[in-house]
Q: What sequence folds into this?
């Protein structure tokens, strides 16, 4: 819905960064309906900060579809929030970490959360849970949620490995930011 997205950006209900010009050779699809590729036909599947916005069974379908379409030796790269790291930073009471995360999630100053002024657990829950758990959503907020879905399931490395194994993946490696065999990671891995 490009017109609707532009309208919400102009009304400052979506961040300006949502106005993305995708490369011409990039093929976008609604992966919840399956991937529009033949079996064993794709070299790479890349997903960034997407799986946590699906219920686990929906994420399972996406990962299974990725396994189906990947060629032997193909690569599935998944970037998503690390729940173990979030929990560790919470237990360490690392307010600076949560301030940095908040700046990524809420880039406009009027929506920024001062981690020093709020309990860290509240900030952590803002990262994990949908806003509808906290406040009654207006029509405008519901419209915005058509574009920016809330988190529905979180993963740590072990739970993600479990999801991947259930889908048929056997060789599972943990990689750092912009590290791995997928081309163009400097352009793809943006946060």
A:
């Amino acid at each position: 819905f490009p017109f609707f997205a532009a309208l919400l950006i102009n009304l400052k209900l979506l961040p300006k960064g949502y106005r993305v010009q995708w490369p011409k050779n990039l093929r976008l699809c609604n992966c919840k309906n399956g991937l529009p590729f033949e079996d064993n036909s794709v070299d790479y599947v890349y997903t960034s900060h997407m799986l946590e916005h699906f219920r686990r069974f929906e994420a399972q379908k996406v990962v299974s579809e990725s396994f189906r379409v990947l060629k032997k030796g193909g690569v599935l790269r998944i970037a998503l929030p690390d729940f173990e790291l979030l929990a560790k930073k919470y237990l360490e009471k690392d307010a600076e970490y949560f301030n940095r995360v908040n700046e990524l999630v809420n880039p406009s100053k009027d929506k920024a959360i001062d981690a020093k002024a709020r309990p860290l657990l509240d900030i952590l829950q803002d990262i994990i849970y949908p806003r509808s758990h906290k406040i009654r959503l207006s029509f405008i907020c519901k419209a915005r949620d058509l574009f920016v879905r809330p988190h529905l399931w979180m993963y740590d490395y072990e739970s993600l490995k479990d999801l991947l194994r259930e889908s048929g993946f056997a060789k599972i490696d943990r990689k750092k930011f912009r590290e791995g065999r997928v081309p163009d990671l400097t352009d793809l891995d943006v946060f």
